[in-house]
Design goal:
Length: about 325
């Protein structure tokens, strides 16, 4: 899907977006103000909203990487895009007391160097355009949000996602119908057993609280692991959920991909940059049943690879994440 700015007769910058303070946490469905990255929201018409965001320079989850030269964590852009989708929908009169259930999404970073600024936080603009696919009594209930992400007026990335909006009661009824009972909450889960997580350095992390995998095994040309997130990590679990979120599934896919690629002794985990993420989510990932991620270990080496990670629960594929990665050849230290 090719995305271009669609605001007629003006650029995103001409809307005079501000970066002075974050927007209400309620607009992005966050409990902690510190996890809100958007700073301004302005509706242009009944389909288009422009948004300002500031990327943090220091964050316990998004900025925790062993590689020295990370310009931007793609999962940070993933989260900013999620927040922008919600805030834009609410700006277009979608009620705040609704939940967004995503079915598919895609992030493509075309200019990763645009995010490299060691002197100040990166300020970005996001143009959001909605194509509504379902309306009920004139109110949007499902659709596609297309986003163009710009830095200093230049397009650096694009993102789109499809999904539907539900009330809390509608979601609860759906979940009970699917399971046959009410699902547990992440707030009820105990901390994972000490030592259950994989070593943090193996998945490109410094802090073990950012490791979401355990029980790694290689066999038959495949890499497999169990998703075992630390429930006390408030960046991953800002508030309670009744399922593993797409952000956690995507992080699990990234970590498994890094492990699979590191099977090549000449390509360590720090040699790869993620520039493309596509997620397909068919079913909820239940928190009271094991969730397994698996991928085929690449055998042909190139400067750019696409890796598909399948997410399986109860012997059924419930989601799939495809990552695009490129090698980097830069040395240690800042240039």
């Amino acid at each position: 899907m090719t995305l271009e700015p669609t605001i007629p007769g003006q650029s995103v910058e001409s809307t005079a977006l501000t970066y002075d303070t974050t927007i209400s946490r309620a607009l992005v469905h966050r409990a902690a103000v510190s996890e809100v990255f958007l700073t301004d929201v302005r509706a242009i018409d009944d389909r288009t909203v422009v948004i300002a965001a500031q990327l943090p320079r220091c964050h316990g989850y998004f900025n925790d990487h062993t590689k020295w030269h990370v310009k931007v964590d793609p999962l940070l852009l993933f989260e900013v895009a999620r927040q922008a989708t919600l805030a834009s929908a609410h700006a277009l009169k979608v009620p705040q007391k609704t939940i967004l259930i995503s079915s598919e999404c895609e992030l493509d970073i075309q200019d990763i160097a645009a995010f490299e600024d060691w002197e100040k936080p990166t300020e970005i603009t996001i143009e959001n355009t909605f194509d509504w696919t379902t309306l009920r009594r004139g109110e949007p209930r499902a659709g596609i949000c297309k986003q163009v992400i710009s830095v200093n007026g230049q397009i650096a990335a694009t993102h789109w996602s499809s999904g539907q909006f539900m009330s809390h009661s509608q979601l609860a009824a759906l979940r009970e119908e699917q399971r046959g009972d009410l699902p547990p909450s992440t707030a009820q889960m105990l901390d994972r057993p000490e030592g259950a997580a994989l070593p943090s350095g193996e998945v490109g992390r410094n802090n073990k609280l950012n490791v979401v995998l355990s029980k790694l095994e290689y066999s038959g040309g495949m890499a497999r692991a169990t998703i075992a997130p630390p429930w006390q990590n408030r960046a991953l679990f800002d508030h309670s959920y009744d399922h593993l979120t797409m952000q956690i599934l995507t992080e699990a896919a990234r970590q498994l991909t890094m492990l699979a690629l590191s099977q090549d002794p000449n390509a360590e985990v720090d040699h790869w940059d993620v520039h493309f993420v596509k997620g397909e989510f068919g079913q909820f990932a239940e928190i009271d049943l094991p969730v397994v991620v698996k991928t085929r270990i690449p055998t042909e080496r190139a400067d750019e690879v696409r890796v598909r990670v399948d997410i399986v629960q109860a012997s059924q594929e419930i989601a799939a994440i495809t990552l695009g990665l490129t090698t980097n050849t830069r040395g240690q230290g800042h240039e």
